[in-house]
Amino acid sequence: MKKVLSLIGMVLMTGAVVAPAAKADIIHTISASTQLRVDAAATDATRIGSSYTVQGTNITAGTMGGLSAQTGTAAAGHTDGVYTVTTAGDAFSLSESFTAGDAVNTIGSGVDVTAHTYTAEVTGDNAAPAINSYGTIMDLPAFGNTVTTSGGHAGSLAGTIATDGAIGLTAGGAGTTATGQVVTTLTIN
Question: Which domain holds residue 26?
Fold first, then answer.
């Protein structure tokens, strides 16, 4: 028995019996990103057509108004109607409306959106700005439905992420966006 105890003691001292190892996977990820955006100048124009409507009660049309054809690329015009009250002394109503449509433009006659830069300051009544006007739209299309946005100006727009995860964002000019993020994930299985 003494030999068995001494054998167990020797085995324990040499490390022949080891506790079972723990099985665990550890995954640690760090993702850092900045996004800097400067809006572009844009124009969206939709050509509208001409329209004419008339409605009424207790009205007689001697001549109905309506749309009239024009020459060339002009939008449809309108003709006036001649209306009279049907029963004199009774209530009546008359509503007539006309919306002038857009003329058809020649292909390639649109307006380009470009960056106009003023490099020198001019004084007096016709002074140009001493700053750069990025993405401005100098001429607008004249359609019935037009939405125009000016371009942004980067200015001092900047973004950094330090090794300690500190985010530094510097605002730019009009029409800019700066976003910074650090995502840390720790997964233990």
Answer: 21-39+152-189
Q: What is the pLDDT of residues 3-35, one digit of tens each?
A: 655 656 555 555 555 556 667 789 999 999 999
SS3 label, residue 119: coil
Strands (E), 39-144: 42-46, 51-57, 59-63, 66-68, 77-79, 82-85, 93-99
Q: Count the domains in the chain.
A: 2
Q: Is residue 26 part of a domain?
A: yes
Please name the amino acid found at residue 35.
Q
Q: Is 109 part of a structural domain of the chain?
A: no
Read off the amino acid at residue 25.
D
- Domain-embedded: residue 121: no
State pLDDT tens for residues 62-80: 999 999 998 888 889 999 9
Strands 59-63 and 82-85: antiparallel
pLDDT number for residue 96? 92
CA–CA gap between residue 15 and residue 43 (Å, rounded): 79
Residue 158 lies in a domain: yes
